[in-house]
Amino acid sequence: MKYDFDNVPSRFNINSLKWDCKDDELPMWVADMDFSVAPKIKEALLKRVNAGTFGYSISSDEFFDSFIRFNLIRHNIKYEKEDIIMSIGAVPAISSMVRKITTPAEKVVLLTPVYNIFFNSIYNNGRYILESNLLYNPKTQEYSIDFSDLEIKLSDPQTSLLILCNPHNPIGKIWSEEELLKILELTRKYNVKIISDELHCDIVTPGLEYTPIQKLTNNNDNVISILSASKCFNLAGLQAAYVICKNKELNWKIKRGLNTDEVAEGNAFYNDAFIAAFDSIDWLDEMNAYVTINKRYAYEFLSKIKGVKPIKGDATYLLWVDIKDITNDSKKFVEFLREKTGLIITEGIEYGNSGEGFVRINLATSISNVIDGLNRFKTGVKLYK
């Protein structure tokens, strides 16, 4: 490989959320990478720092051009500049849109288990959550959408929004074009808006591809996508994302909401860093290849532990693991793991009721850390039993 993913930089003592732990602990929980960013990104940031001023910033034409070009090359989709709205992050944008495009006491549907912060964005804004549990087959260890249940939830007169995760966090599933079309059909039928969180879209098994939901929409659809270079290029700390909506009326509502909530401006660094990221496709490809190796190793390793069933996922650097044959109390299990082995992972109940009996492991780190973490996991399972 051209880039070195085996030797990850130390993240102790740099105010890292992930690595704010004891020296003998190994964090494999929150969704960010331990890898050094692509060299072009580092060079762009150093150049920006050397400019010496850090006042208010705007998105340059070069930023929009690079984003549009990247997605055309990568995903064969042509986004239009006028449809793109900047935000300081995906979560602030989602929370703002929940406030702007739904009303208090209305219902928001989630396909669960799903990214835990979605719950906060809904509950904290006085809306209700309807969980449509994904169908899990423990024999094949695969997930699918329960479209009958989803239709019931979408047909509720109080339902006004579906928040989708595409690809899906935490199960690592790439939704097919057929599945997305069926979702669109149901939301059109019941006049329900969609927010599609696509932040993990470029972290996929080499040779596979995700389908941007906007590829399947028209200008009248009430569909919103959220994208960012944050997850795929390890830039989450720069706090920037972009909202895309073709529907002009809805686009204007979103824009007004983001500006009213004062979350429509990025910081002084995202513009240059993201331009460099979109010009670092070779780094992205190598990162995907490396993470895929980590995931395959982890899958094979965990499959040999009695009572543990890893879920095969073709997207994200996260591994979803079924531990129901060991315990249904995932919170107690991860607390035990940390206390006894120092391994820090996430309990499945964080992702909705259907996540109980599962755990999530972040594999975006060196293979040596992966091996260390999996051995700690194995030891923890033995001690727990």
List the helices and strands and how they pair.
Blueprint: E1 26-27, H1 39-50, H2 61-75, E2 84-87, H3 90-101, E3 107-112, H4 117-123, E4 128-133, E5 135-137, E6 142-144, H5 147-155, E7 159-165, H6 177-189, E8 193-197, E9 223-227, E10 241-244, H7 248-260, H8 270-278, H9 281-303, E11 309-310, E12 318-322, H10 330-341, E13 343-344, E14 346-347, E15 358-362, H11 367-384
Parallel strand pairs: 1-13, 3-4, 3-7, 7-8, 8-9
Antiparallel strand pairs: 2-10, 5-6, 9-10, 11-12, 12-15, 14-15
Helix pairs in contact: 1-8, 2-8, 3-4, 3-7, 5-6, 9-11, 10-11
Count helical runs: 11
Physical arrangement of strands within the biggest beta sheet: 2-10-9-8-7-3-4
CATH superfamily of the largest domain: Type I PLP-dependent aspartate aminotransferase-like (Major domain)
Q: Under the CATH scheme, which class of the largest domain? A: Alpha Beta
The CATH topology of the largest domain, please?
Aspartate Aminotransferase, domain 2
Give the end-to-end Cα distance, rounded to a whole number of Å: 41 Å
Nearest-angstrom radius of gyration? Answer: 20 Å
CATH-level-2 architecture of the largest domain: 3-Layer(aba) Sandwich
Average residue-wise pLDDT: 97
Question: How many strands?
Answer: 15
The structure class reads: alpha/beta
The share of residues in helices is 25-40%
Number of domains: 2
Strand percent estimate: 15-25%
Q: Biggest sheet: strands, sense, closure? A: 7 strands, mixed
String of helices and strands: EHHEHEHEEEHEHEEEHHHEEHEEEH
Low-confidence stretches: none
